[in-house]
Amino acid sequence: MVPAYTCIVFDLDGTLTDSREGIYASIRYALDKHGFPCPGEDTLRRFLGPPLAESFISWCGMTEEQAAMATESYRERYIPRGMLENAVYPGIPALLKRLKEDGVFLAVATGKPLNATRPILEHFGLWDFFSSVACPALSDLHADKAALIGNALSGLPEKARERVLMVGDIPGDILGGQRAGCDTCAALWGYGDDGAMLSSSPTFSAEDPDALFRLLLGDRKPPRGPFISFEGVDGCGKSTQIRLFRAEMEKMGYRTLLTREPGGCPISEGIRSMLLTKEDNGMCDETEALLFAAARAQHLREVILPALEKGWAVISDRYIDSSLVYQGAGRGLGMEWIRAVNRPALRDGMPDVTVILTLDPAEALRRRTKQDIPDRIEKSGCAFFDVADRAFRRLAEEDPLRCAAVDAGGTETEVASRVRAAIFSRLAAGKSKGGKENR
Ligand code: TYD
After folding, report:
1. Cα 233 to averaged position of ligand 1 atoms, centre (Å)
2. What CA–CA distance (Å, rounded) separates 81 from 348?
């Protein structure tokens, strides 16, 4: 383990986020607009990190004036589109969260102007981790890293400046950190060439954010991951929304586990095959409900809890609320009976957020009829699904802190942005109340 730092200053591109896709596309746009040929990937790589105008001059043979115009054109595409063609490196949120909890001041010093830096950090859920963010003015085309680090530190209390570490992925970050009087860490997961990084003499280096976590935090556990379940009547477009949301979480630097109920592990998949037969096997309602609970008990212990402990985000396609609605309301066993039989199954296993996709039952029926042979539950008829739909909406009203009813009508993208907003507002509210935690 390395010394306890009072403040850690991070570079942004190539250190916190992998922003290549949007940067390359915006460079190509600017070069094309000004009639310059686009260089190959090897040269484009060199644009990552140093001030953009300097790269236009060095690698495309532009004059200072042409480089200023090309930078402006770059921003024309980068600000509305390119900046979100971007992803947080896996493990970064866990690292920042634990450091912040330990009282370490966190800061960003980046060559990107604030009009891009802030929306990126906000969009990917990182903004609130940082006590100070230093960016150059829009007109400053040759920002100096040591000066940026100095600016980041000047906004912090005296005690934060006692022992500072700069983490960056190109030699300019390391040299800038040294000139600003900081220890430095080479983020070898970023854009810099490993040899060049190491010969810039960083205090230490890390292969990936998990290695940096171990260096800075020893054997501390990562924070427990978020647990999110998706619910809704058959035909509401749940699978598509789950796929889109999972991709979002991965872009935010979370490792994800996607699982489903009934099922998710061999024993529970075995129970699933009994529950979802195509023919009527004469199963009584109580057996059905108890088997769903049994499958859940195994799934939670074998799959869900271990993944949450590792800090992964767990996304489950259906969970306890399906039992409350389908067996409790639909089969008429009553929600209290379902809660009671699920209590021993659930232990510490309630989701942090449950998205309930709601859809006009007639529209859901239209979407369902396109599918192949229905299983036992799907054969239950329209009245059953109407009851289920109303019960899902009622659950959302009764427990709005955990459950979000999200209108599943409209385009995939419209629904996805409603889903995202519903989940992140609840996760943030849970955090401020002090949610479940790994100790
Ligand atoms: P599945 O084929 O996974 O599809 P989908 O979730 O897309 O509808 O079907 C699971 C079925 O099991 C679904 O009809 C809902 C039902 N179910 C219950 O009745 N109770 C439960 O507790 C769970 C988890 C599912």
Report:
1. 9
2. 41
pLDDT band of residue 437 (cuts 50, 70, 90) is low
pTM: 0.91
Q: Please return the burial class of 36, using the count of CB atoms within 10 Å of its CB with bins 0-12, 13-18 and 19+.
A: middle
Q: Nearest CA to 38 among 47, 29, 49, 46?
A: 29
User: What are 214-273's pLDDT values in tens digits?
Assistant: 999 999 999 999 999 999 987 788 999 999 999 999 999 999 999 999 999 999 999 999
What CATH number is given to the structural domain containing 422?
3.40.50.300
Residue 48 is part of which domain span?
A: 20-84
Q: Closest Cα to residue 10, out of 126, 137, 158, 136?
A: 126
Q: Give the C-alpha distances (Å, rounded to integers) separating 370 from 314, 360, 380, 386.
A: 30, 17, 17, 19
CATH code of the domain containing 77: 1.10.150.240
The verdict on residue 222 lying in a domain is no
Digit-coded pLDDT (tens) for 380-419: 777 888 888 899 999 999 999 999 999 999 999 999 999 9
Which residue from 84, 94, 27, 85 is spatially nearest to 59, judged by alpha carbons?
27
Residues 212 and 296 occupy one common structural domain: no
Residue 281 CA, distance from chain mean position:
42
Residue ID of nearest Cα to ligand 1 atom 5:
234
Q: How far is the CA of 262 from the centre of ligand 1 (A)?
A: 7
Nearest CA to ligand 1 atom 7: 234
Which of 326, 356, 375, 376 most suits a substitution to test ligand 1, by most atoms within 8 Å of the C-beta?
326
| Dihedral sign computed on CA atoms, order 110, 253, 404, 437 | negative
- Which residue has its alpha carbon closest to ligand 1 atom 25? 322
